[in-house]
Amino acid sequence: MPGEFEIIERIRRQVGPPGPGVLQGIGDDAAVLEAPGATLLASSDALVEGIHFHLSYMSPRQVGRKAMAVNLSDVGSMGGRPLFALVTLGLRRGLPEGFLDELYAGLLEMGRTHGTQVVGGDTVTSPERFFIDVAILGVPGEGPPVLRSGARVGDRVAVTAPLGASGAGLAWLLAEREERLPAGARGAAQEAVLACVRAHLEPTPRVQAGQALAACGAVHAMMDISDGLASEVNHVARESGVGIRVRGGDVPVAPEASEMGRLLDADPFPWALSGGEDYELLFTYNPAAEDRVQAALAGAGLRLHVLGEVTRREEGVTLEREGQLHPLPPAGYVHLQD
Ligand SMILES: Nc1ncnc2c1ncn2[C@@H]1O[C@H](COP(=O)(O)OP(=O)(O)O)[C@@H](O)[C@H]1O
Ligand SMILES: Cc1ncc(C[n+]2csc(CCOP(=O)(O)OP(=O)(O)O)c2C)c(N)n1
Ligand SMILES: [Mg+2]
């Protein structure tokens, strides 16, 4: 079976070039559509039991929150305002009592935080595993939608916060589930464990930051980090027709992920580089206007974390470590890959 990206590429070719009203079709965080009287942003993402979460460690409320959050994140990463959501449920036998009420409490509470209403959906049987898909509709914020394809040579590449806590949280949850936590890890450093687990189970979509970055006028390309930094920089490079150099020493690793590395006797860097599900924003911007970028982030309570620059396409996507340049393949989570 080909991996998810090859499948999407084939679908993209079969669908063909964007038709009337489609400003951006397949290939970005959200589609950008010109409807009579309005520009719309549209996107959907599903969470599947056993692939994205296990109900043994994730509450139905958290599943609801995350299903909404990852979709809000896709609209936020275009600088848009998410307005309406359609929710499709694939329900199986044996779901716990109160499951739906809790799931919807999570969906609605996350939606409300960002002014997004649930307006419809679909409910079907799923024979073995529960799944939830959210489709979201929004509009651009004050700035025009920021695509993956706008990066320019000379741009700086940055993220909205240190990375790796979600990957570290998942590593902990899976080790606990599979009863392979190292002896002595359990009682120790509870704060770091809680912070990583929370980052994984309750991600915060950067909707306000995305809108502010799009509005500041200096950001050329933007996307959210779902599959992992390494994967996403490759997406931006490809869609923009540029190279990207990531400086390994400048990839911000969340302190709680570093602490988790000590507990699990693991290197935290791979969590930051390719663990995924951070839902921070990756963006490129004009260095001459860095003060505007900083001001936009400060308004959203965040800081600028610069980790590389946009280069000519011929230089490819690279990781600089200890003075040496290495190719940086799109390692990260890929559905359907064996
Ligand atoms: N089955 C599909 N049919 C059409 N377009 C798809 C399909 N699956 C994914 N896409 C599109 O491919 C692009 C990449 O998808 P994905 O990697 O899931 O992006 P994201 O990380 O933003 O969710 C998006 O534009 C998405 O809408
Ligand atoms: C049980 C379990 N195993 C592995 C993962 C890791 N994981 C699953 S999907 C994914 C990537 C993000 O999900 P995807 O559906 O690819 O989101 P999209 O890129 O479409 O937004 C990651 C890192 C997880 N969250 N849970
Ligand atoms: Mg997706």
Automatic annotation (TrEMBL):
Mg(2+) 3 binds at residues 29, 74, 224. Pathway: Cofactor biosynthesis; thiamine diphosphate biosynthesis; thiamine diphosphate from thiamine phosphate: step 1/1. Residues 152-316 form the PurM-like C-terminal domain. The keyword Magnesium applies. Mg(2+) 1 binds at residues 44-45, 122. Residues 27-139 form the PurM-like N-terminal domain. It holds the Pfam family AIRS_C. Keywords: ATP-binding, Kinase, Magnesium, Metal-binding, Nucleotide-binding, Thiamine biosynthesis, Transferase. Mg(2+) 4 binds at residues 29, 43, 74. Its EC number is 2.7.4.16. HAMAP family: TMP_kinase. This is Thiamine-monophosphate kinase. The gene is thiL.
